[in-house]
Design goal:
Blueprint: E1 8-18, E2 21-28, E3 40-43, E4 46-55, E5 61-67, H1 69-74, E6 85-90, E7 109-118, E8 123-128, H2 131-134, E9 142-145, E10 148-151, E11 154-156, E12 159-164, H3 166-171, E13 182-187, H4 189-202
Length: about 220
Amino acid sequence: MFTGIVTDIGTVISVTERNDVKRLSVATSYPAASIDIGASISCAGVCLTVVAREDAADGKSAVDFEAGAETLAVTTVADWDYGTRINLERALKVGDELGGHLMTGHVDGIATIVTREDFGETTRFVFEAPHALARFIAAKGSVALDGTSLTVNAVDGDRFECLLIPHTLKVTTWNERKTGDRVNLEVDTIARYVARLNATAEAPASPQSATPTAPP
């Protein structure tokens, strides 16, 4: 689990492909010795498993991940190449401060930046979500975009907007985002389950679930 509070920006320093698996090496300031093989790290909102790690140059660590066909199909990982910068967050520990909202790192789909508007210090982004996911996004609710926990300011159909403060722009990759960019979207887990419960409650009982009637 993650909270959407980005703690480092990693840079892809190596990409190799083997059949339907993409292996990425990411430079990060996280100490290599503190990362266990098999640990989960949120990479631009995608929960990836550490398969190798070692000390690298300039006090950095090189952490390797592997992404399979499903991850490549539903996230932006397929687009990552040498030099791509990504938001990183290590997995939540019991007792850690929950500064954002609970996230699984299981990306639901890809949203597109429709407009970017820079004000004095803040920046407003308007996104378009896949139609099937838009119903899970509500004004004043939370949404995870590229691994960042953001508050939804307004919703209009499949589009929604978020206003980013200077701190968020400084410590994440958001200041590099522009109109047309694709970002990983994970809807709020609570919204997903509420929608599922409502759908189940409204659905008519199937014949198989009906109580059998005793023969006359």
